[in-house]
Specification:
Blueprint: H1 3-17, H2 26-37, E1 40-42, E2 49-51, H3 59-65, E3 70-72, E4 86-89, E5 100-103, E6 109-110
Antiparallel strand pairs: 1-2, 3-4, 4-5, 5-6
Helix pairs in contact: 2-3
Length: 114
């Protein structure tokens, strides 16, 4: 086995044994979560947090509503069983509401399935 083959085998081994790393940074995940948070509001009829529709606030104001993102690997236990690495953003003012979940590989919003 030549040195090139050995180096390739070692590289493949290290890549396979490396823990899952996010392909998108926490900053990009935070922007994706803030885009979702822009559309959220508290419904006065039932006091529940609802999301969707037109943006209700600026991106900066939406970022302020969210706590720092937490990276969760696919094999780690979490409230959302996504089966892949995710970024989790909890609400600062609404601790009992479901967090915003972002796919760490694509940067897209994930609906949490507990």
């Amino acid at each position: 086995m030549g040195w090139k083959s050995c180096a390739l085998a070692v590289t493949i081994y290290l890549l396979m044994s490396a823990p899952a790393r996010p392909q998108i940074s926490s900053d990009k995940a935070e922007v994706a979560a803030a885009r979702r948070a822009r559309t959220c509001y508290v419904d006065m009829m039932d006091g529940q947090l609802k999301c969707g529709g037109r943006p209700q606030r600026s991106l900066a104001a939406a970022k302020a509503l969210l706590g720092p993102g937490t990276f969760v690997k696919a094999d780690e236990p979490s409230a959302c069983h996504a089966g892949k690495p995710i970024w989790v953003f909890k609400w600062r003012g609404f601790p009992h509401e479901a967090p915003i979940i972002i796919d760490a590989q694509t940067g897209k919003l994930i609906e949490c399935r507990p």
